[in-house]
## 1
Amino acid sequence: MNKLLLLTIFLGIVGYCTALDCATGASTQDNITCYCAHGYYGTDASKGQTCQRCPDNSTSTSGSANTGPGINIGACNQCVNGYYVTAVANTASSGTAVQCQQCPANSTTSSAMSTVGFCTCYDPNAAPLSSSVTTCACKSGYKGTPTTTAGSASTCVANSVILSIFAALLSLVFLF
Ligand SMILES: *[C@@H]1O[C@H](CO)[C@@H](O)[C@H](O)[C@H]1NC(C)=O
Ligand SMILES: *[C@@H]1O[C@H](CO)[C@@H](O)[C@H](O)[C@H]1NC(C)=O
Ligand SMILES: *[C@@H]1O[C@H](CO)[C@@H](O)[C@H](O)[C@H]1NC(C)=O
């Protein structure tokens, strides 16, 4: 075995022995303090304790926001990407987690949200979603089917473009 390999193994063993053990569902950044991991919450993240997993489709921020004596399920205050908030989290009394709803087809959220809102259609020319608009459709002044691919160009066509094509065709008819 070469020296570098031996050194690596030695350092690995030393590192393992000095690493701070934390609760299930927790980890440490500095080997001094344990915090419940992202997506978990708990009153004590030290070894032997357990951090609870946030309800499906919701998540938490690791640190003092999701770990400590006063922490409850209200620490699960963000919906994961692709889900929007229908009711915010509440940390009062025993707490309630944020309520999340999956984004309608062909829409998403750009980051984990914690305030009540709606998803954004992939198509930049789609009408904004709301409590009454729950499917993606081209906004007023546009026709066609909104794009079904995130990040791609709009597939809604402006009425003015359609009109000018029509006008061009019509002028051809008159020319010949
Ligand atoms: C914490 O311990 C681990 C394992 O021993 C080590 O790899 C890491 O560098 C340590 N981090 C700090 C910030 O001391
Ligand atoms: C999470 O999302 C899925 C898919 O939309 C849904 O079936 C499930 O009920 C949600 N879970 C919770 C706890 O809201
Ligand atoms: C969303 O996209 C799918 C194809 O990926 C399509 O079948 C569906 O009709 C679209 N829904 C809406 C509401 O635009």
## 2
Amino acid sequence: MSRWRNKLGEGETRGWALPSAALCAATSLNGGGEARCAHISSAPSGHLPLKGKVLGVRGGIGLDSGGGRGYNGAKMTPAQAGRPKEVTTMMHIGLLGFGVVGGGVWALCAPRDDLNVKRVLLRSPKEGLPEEVVTFNADDILNDPEIDTVVEVMGGLHPAYEYVSAALARGKNVVTANKALIAAYYTELTALAREKGAALRCTAAVGGGIPWLTNLERVKRLDTVCTVGGIMNGTTNFIMDAMHKAPVDFPAILKEAQDLGYAEADPSADIDGDDIRRKLCISANIAFDAALEETAIPTFGIRTVTAADIAAFQSHGFACKLLARAESTENGVCAYVEPTLVDAGDLEAAVPANFNLITYEAEQLGRQSFYGQGAGRFPTAENVVQDCLTVLSGKRGFYTDRAVPMFLTSGEAHPYYVRTSAPDAFLRGRTAETWDNGAVITGAVDVYEMLAWAKAQREKDPGVFIAGIR
Ligand SMILES: NC(=O)c1ccc[n+]([C@@H]2O[C@H](COP(=O)([O-])OP(=O)(O)OC[C@H]3O[C@@H](n4cnc5c(N)ncnc54)[C@H](OP(=O)(O)O)[C@@H]3O)[C@@H](O)[C@H]2O)c1
């Protein structure tokens, strides 16, 4: 329990830290350009795919010739490649989209003998692709019987939904990085994959390059997951981290994030919490075998945080991060996204730049966290290609085979930092103390009640900012 809960002594809240917390952190938390995942990766086991030349017809089962090539094209023996000699198949891929992630997928597949990107769907001409591979007509992929797997990295809901559902309906496997698509059509797409015996994988959709969903799937084989969440959006972490390192206001640091390519021209999905909410929704659905309505998850973003707020947090020993959290409760799932004050010495406080730190707590295993790059061409493309290899090894279906509609329930209460120019009776009735900057600290307030109040309060005070205190 945090010192604020001890101090305020109101209400029982469920915090993150377990006494027997097991944190798999193996790397430093300093920034940098490369992906660094703190967990010693342990993706689902299965037959390792062979990179060596496949003997036999395309799409059929063949015997590996025994060799392989590294990503740089250098020939490797099976031992060097770390793979036993075994029977394998070749995957024929139809790639939808050739942008940041699509270009990375192409580059990672190109030197491999077991992943053949047969066609690439473009919307506008692109450099760097052989002419015979390019198509501007999705039917050239969807109607090609040799293409067994569709990799969707176009983004957006439409026509991604139409293409992905058509591919699954034809029994083709689908690998996607598209969190918006999976969160919005979760029940339908997972059911279709099950019905058709096809694979549906989306590891890159949550955590970019972090093998988060694969480990969530794995832990469920032996244990019961109780909570999921954490820092799941690199853009907002970049902004919050920068604001803690120098007294800079939100609009200035948002512009810097845009100049660096960390934030979109329209940053709303990141700073208002929609992106992290989608990732939380997918994670909670897999963790709890649920089918949550994404847009129903209460969310408050960081758009209104100021340099003065950050200075106040720091003077009280806190750091502020945009955190997602979902907990399995007796009556359903309690899920929400909100700025959160964590102790300055906590693990989340140390996550720099645009890195992510995603955590589950399981009944027996305790807490396990995954740190790394939540975005970027090669981190994200690696998870896409890893999914292809998992499918190639024989895995079908989704990460869970159940999707039970569940109620979103409250059930958690904690203190809040609230800064508003228009305090009302609700806030006055819950105020435990007032800070020097005029913001108030509440006693323990029901999370859903507080987030509903904050949403409504924006009508009276568009600059209102709240943060839960962990
Ligand atoms: N970038 C990351 O770090 C990251 C991380 C995790 C997940 N993701 C997800 O991965 C997906 C792709 O992201 P991205 O960053 O690679 O996006 P991107 O750079 O904008 O690339 C998307 C590509 O898809 C193409 N496209 C869009 N609609 C199309 C259509 N109807 N037909 C054919 N091509 C179409 C675009 O073509 P034009 O060039 O002609 O517009 C563009 O080249 C998104 O769902 C995103 O959320 C990305």
## 3
Amino acid sequence: MKKITKKTYLDWYEDMFFWRKFEDKLAQVYIKQKVRGFLHLYNGQEAVLAGALHAMDLEKDRMITAYRNHVQPIGMGVDPKKVMAELYGKKTGTSQGLGGSMHIFSKEHRFYGGHGIVGGQIPLGAGIAFADKYFERDAVTLTYMGDGAVRQGSLHEAFNLAMLWKLPVVFICENNGYAMGTSVARTANHTDIWKLGLGYEMPCKPVDGMKPEVVAKEMDEAIDRARRGDGPTFLEIRTYRYRGHSMSDAQHYRTKEEVKKKQEEDPISYVLHKIYEEKWATEDEIKKVNKRVKDKVKECEQFAEDSGYPDTNVMYDVVYEQEDYPFLPHKL
Ligand SMILES: Cc1ncc(C[n+]2csc(CCOP(=O)(O)OP(=O)(O)O)c2C)c(N)n1
Ligand SMILES: [Mg+2]
């Protein structure tokens, strides 16, 4: 694995803080109805992404996830201005404003969405890895899912074939404790999600998801296994989301005290504490980083505000059309 150095921690701090502030901004503009539809935020889960990116080869490896998907593409190299514009539904967005919140996508950066059907991306991730193996391409696909997705049949079918064919894939369950308002304990007889790998003899384990260096180490081992042809791994990364499931969640299923308690393990504060403890930066230097982050978020907002909406005549250009379909004329 690439060494974890002072620079790694400083980068982790700046990246995670940017992702947090980017999403705080989204929450603000959502309330002003600048961003519409659903909006699922990642606040609290940032170390899962920071650790993974450290272990990945960003020139080759791929990522696919569910609908909590705004900051992952930024980590993979997509311009955050374009992500913000997509959320605003503007034509300068990653999908020309036609996808929106749950559907950020960038083929160029090997980020394959953004999927709203719970568990739908699990076989897709295995399929991408199958293509890489079939065409002998050196790439590993990180396939993320929530704790709410692991009871889907699609997970078991994908696990079975991925193991049988030793596909270059890492399956990652981001266990944030809840699927909408349903806790993990209410959905299954046991709460050790990682054990689902055992039935397929897939290497699997639980991982502390609040510390990026712990995630990086486990992810590195899993990516390495996939890259050398030894097949998939299943990691249950234990994390927490501070905000509601989406913006319209009254959160009656948990107490404010529970959220506060979990925030004591906050990954950004944890990394900052380490930076100060090791004397890797002064308070003034951190203030400069914070200012840089806030300016960058402002720039993204301004870009999205200033961009135009897509032309209405593109509305039917990106939907599937069967040309000889008998009943409906094209472009109604
Ligand atoms: C197949 C399917 N069933 C139900 C839903 C409705 N739904 C949307 S999100 C969600 C909860 C998923 O929770 P989890 O997988 O833990 O992800 P998290 O939101 O915690 O990141 C449900 C049930 C859906 N989108 N798709
Ligand atoms: Mg969940």
